[in-house]
Design goal:
The protein is α/β, with parallel strands linked by helices. The longest helix is centred in the last third of the chain and has 19 residues. β1, α2 and β2 form a beta-alpha-beta unit. A seven-stranded mixed sheet has the order 3-2-1-4-5-7-6. 32% of the residues lie in helices and 23% in strands.
Length: 276
């Protein structure tokens, strides 16, 4: 776990110890926001149940959920094994697999899962079109199985400046604009994820929006700063003008956040069921 090797091609973040800690922090913030790990519409009953956790990172979602479902087998997939825990530290019902989500899954795993869980693919989806990934994930599902996807609603990204704070917070506003309209990827698709699900043939497709509890705004600020720092460190030449400008913007945003500014966004939770 926590390698210092370069991030996989197309991945905008690191895979070292700090990046792994950020993912674990993100997991607990997401759980607090959603108030569940597995969506309550999904029921796992009977023997032989399986869950695929795609883009599992540190496997934290599966590690926590498997305690509630000790008889369910979890398969964690990620493009790199750098952040997987050592196998002797994993629960007995978790297996890990190094696999690129855009590539076909092994034949023996297709059609074997009751749930495919996907989370935070905002920067991974290519050309603003999640359809190729949805098609690939559907191959894993049993008839009647659920695709369960949690992501950021980029359209909801906003700077929040408290009225009692006499400042313009230019860095916070600029960073929020950059995150809402990122130059390196199309982030508009998440707000239409249920439409993509329906177009690919999933039934009972729904999209829910989850907002930040104001009590946790400061924790989300910290997470956002970690995300930005991780991206800058992992993907940019530290001596480049772009990296220096981003780091300076992060530092100014952090200063403004200490005075009460914030950057908030909603999450979307998409569910769809494969035809029985």
């Amino acid at each position: 776990m926590a390698s210092t090797s370069p991030p996989p091609q197309g991945y905008l973040f690191g895979t070292d110890t700090r990046a792994s800690a950020r993912l674990n922090y993100q997991h607990f913030l997401t759980k607090q926001r959603l108030q569940y790990l597995l969506h309550p519409h999904i029921r796992l009953q009977g023997p032989g149940r399986r869950i695929a956790d795609v883009g599992a990172g540190t496997c934290i979602w599966s590690i926590e959920l498997c305690q509630q479902y000790p008889d369910v087998h979890f398969d964690c997939f990620d493009i790199t094994a750098d952040q997987f825990p050592a196998k002797n530290l994993l629960p007995h019902n978790i297996s890990v697999h190094e696999h690129d989500a855009f590539q076909a899954f092994p034949e023996h795993l297709r059609g074997t899962y009751d749930v495919v869980h996907v989370q935070m693919f905002l920067t991974i989806v290519k050309n603003g079109n999640p359809a190729p990934l949805i098609k690939n994930f559907m191959t894993l599902l049993k008839p009647g199985g659920w695709l369960y996807w949690v992501d950021v609603d980029s359209k909801s990204v906003r700077a929040v400046i408290p009225k009692e704070t006499p400042m313009l917070a230019p860095a916070t506003r600029a960073m929020a604009t950059l995150l809402k309209h990122p130059p390196s990827y199309d982030a508009s698709w998440t707000s239409k994820l249920d439409t993509y699900f329906t177009q690919e043939g999933l039934l009972e497709s729904t999209l829910e929006h989850c907002v930040v509890d104001p009590l946790f705004t400061s924790l989300h600020n910290v997470h956002l700063l970690l995300v930005l720092e991780d991206h800058a460190t992992a993907t940019l030449d530290p001596d480049s003008m772009k990296a220096k400008a981003l780091q300076a913007g992060i530092a100014r945003t952090a200063t403004e956040m200490k005075s009460g500014a914030a950057i908030l966004n909603d999450y979307v939770v998409a569910l769809g069921r494969k035809v029985s």
